[in-house]
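Teaching note: in complex prediction, the entire set of molecules is handled at once rather than each chain in isolation. The prompt given to students was simply: 'Predict the structure of this complex.' The entities are:
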Amino acid sequence: MSTDRARTTDTKRPQRSLRERLFVAGVTMAISAVVALAVIAAAGSREQLQLRRTAAHVIEEQRIGDAVIRGVMSQLAIAGDPTSRGSRARLAAFDSIGHGVYDDVRQYLFRTLSPAERLQIESVKEEHQQMEVAARRVMAADNQQMATAAAGNNEMVQHAFQLLDALQGFVDLREQALTTLADTQGSTLQRLTIGSIAFIASMLLMQIVLAMRFVRRRVTDPLEDFTAAVARVGAGDLDVRMPRAADREFASTFQAFNEMSASLATARADLEARNDALTAALARVRATQDELVQAEKLGAIGRMTAGLAHELNNPLATVLASSELLATRLNENDPPSMEQLSTEFVEPMRREAQRARLLVRSLLQFARRAESEVGPVSLREAVDVVRELRQFAFAGAGITLQIEPIPDVLVMAERQQLQGVLLNIINNALDALKPRKQGLVRVVTRIEPNSVEVVVQDDGPGLQDPSRVFEAFYTTKGVGEGTGLGLALAERFMTSFGGSIIAGNQPSGGACFTLRFVRPQVAAPAAAQAEPDVALPIRSTSRQQRVLVVDDEPAIQRAQSLLLKRLDLEVETCDSVAAARAAIARSEFHAILCDVKMPGESGVVLFQWIRREMPSMLPHFLFVTGDIAAAELSEIAAEFPDALISKPFDAREYLLRVERALA
Amino acid sequence: MLSSTRMAFRRHLAAVAAPLLLLACREQPRPLIGAALGATLNEAVTMALEDVAPPGTPPIADTLFLAEQSSVAASAIELASTLLTRPNLVAVVGHTNSSASLAAAQLYNDAKVVELAPTSTAQLYSSAGPFSFRMVPPDHRQGRVLAQAVAEARPNGARVALLYVNDDYGRSLRTVVAASLDSMQLRVVADLPHLDSPGRARTVLADIESVIRADPNVIVWLGRPASLHAVLPAIRASLGELPVFASDATTAWSLSGNVDGVLTGVWYVDFVDLNATAEGRRFRERYRTRFGRAPGGGEALAYDAMRVIVEAIRNGARSGDDVRRFLDELGRERSAIQGVTGSISFSVDGDVRRDPILLRIPSPDSIATGDR
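The expected output is the structure of the full assembly:
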């Protein structure tokens, strides 16, 4: 903007540097001071010269006056001498002297005289003329004209005296003028001295003021502007530009500053563009990473499927055997007593079903795709999930999974990624020990004030090359047994948690992985609740409350109805969302328990309908689902954390949740 | 920043320039011309002013007339001092004779005011200063004319009586005439000064005996006509009708002063012959109509002197220095002015370029009929 104009102006007029300006100003000041002093000195010397010249004039005039007097005296002498009468030579001498006197007097004529002085000179001249006429009469008189001669003599002498008087008057006037001039010049010199001091002082003051103004306008103000501009640039305003400076030093500095600001602005724009590109790339990397994690998890699940089926079959076999035996016994004549019923049939079935439920829940939790957000996570819960998933695989392989008791400690991690890390390391240990059909995998936790260390070690063959285990696609397993990404992802996750992972071999030969976590700077959560009581809550109220159960499975409908009756509730069941909407439109319910995946519309559709039509019912809406990790429930779970009941559910927990919803 | 500095400078410049402009544009006073002459010459000057600016037209210059009561140095110094008190004085037409003009010359030169003397011939006036001008040539030209006339009148031996007034005028003329006579080997038998100041006894009558004793056959009179009028009957009574040659001062009496015919036949030096040109004759008639008498050469010279000064002012002269420059340029950078006395321009000494002529005083009868 203004820079272009400034450059255009620069090409038109070359700038002076501040140094040159200061030099010129200094020289100008010095010259003006010298000139002032010279003027003062010249004025003083002129006055003195005038005085000297006037004095010289007076002296010369006195000399002329002396010459006039001498000439007049000579003329008087010639005219008064009786022998001169009739003598042509004496007459010529008289005339010659008279011419001399006249010439002397004439010298006064063209001098600078006052009117009074000039009148005196005119009187001198006139008296001389009259004296000459009288003298000539005396000189022309013969012996018979003695009376004429005597009268002429008297007249001649009288004019001579008058001439002398006039000349003396002239000299007096000149001396008086000289005295007056001397007095005048004395006072003039005095005034000149005072004026000189005042002039030099005022000039000095003016120069100081001008110098201060110059420094302020040419140095201080530009520096302040420049400092402010630098501060603005420091604050991030890269659009600031300095105007064109008058002096070369500031001009070049400001131009460099403007170019620097422009370069910084360009560089910042480039950086912002690159940052945007990097952000987009990072997002893509994260998405890819999530995909990889998910793939790795799914792979792990695939690899675990056989073991998991076995693990599920065991409790199912127990439940099936117990239930068949119970049915047989109930049809016989010797039915079991209530105590036998509880200890021999119901309790084993409940325990095994609980075991199967935990296994499925762990599997679901592990498989769920979660947002990558690092925060405080319970280390014990993560380890428990892994243990639940793999303990039966370990047992089947004849390998002992020994997990030292872990206090309920929080570490900085992302829940799913943490489970993935632990599961990967445990799986690797299991895979390494499996061919031997025996061995020990030991998990030890050490808690430090600011960190938690988890050590997983086994007594297997150890790592072939510990330095390469975290490389992507590095694997010692057979084809199809591993992707080679597990430990690479584990290291990346640990780094993103702010922790670390170290792989190595024990001196005894087994592998050893050390996981170091950062502890969050928050208070420890409340102590874990005590193991829930087995007894189911029973409630009897004076006011009958109605509950709507929506599930496409009749068995689930029946089981829930039986449980809900323990709370003295009136239960109505539906097998679809459409039927549920009709029931809700028909009558009032105090709570709604709804499956998610049903033929036709999903339970989420019913939830959204309730949100639109009956928002006051939302706190009383519960999902009862076998897939709480379903993506479509994630937003609802975030908004209503207590709205999800996982199938298969614990009866007591189920009833407690329904009670809370009814409250 | 450069523009604000530039704007501040322009404001300061305007603040300084505005009062200077107002000062420059204020009304300038008209130039003043002084006139310090005798009564008849002042009349001629008045007529010149009326001719250049007739009544009803705006005046070209202010004028201040001071009449010389006597043509002596003291009176001239007094008049010059009075005139010089006026700050807008640029030129003075005056004074009447050489003594007066010389006495005042230095005052005018010091004040840088032009002094244009109509009839002062003293040789010394040529070196009076750059502001001293005159309408007549210096004495040495007149001296040669007079000597030539003496030689022609007495080709077989002249015996000259040289009678001069012992003042600046007479002494100057006497020196150059004596030198011219001597160069022509014309004998001077009487060389007598006299006094002609007002209030003083005219000594020439008392001394005329010595002149008569010298028995001259030619009289050369270098003085005022009144004194000549006083002594000429006595000379003629003793020496007969001998030729008399008078200096230019006689011109004042050449027409109006010879009522008794005493000066008839006297040859005198003049610088203007009004009869010689139509312009001169018209001037003479207008003057006679205006003032009732015929003008002499002095009146014509005074008339032209004022015309010259007015012409300088009309050409933009606003100071004495401007007038001096104008006069110096006449005949050089500017054309000479054509006046009733002929072409007017000045030498480097301020003397008009003009030749003296010799005229003869006519009889009163011919003056009365205007034949001259």
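Point out the following to students. Residues 1-11, 525-532 of chain A have pLDDT under 50 and may be disordered. The two ends of chain A are 70 Å apart (CA to CA).
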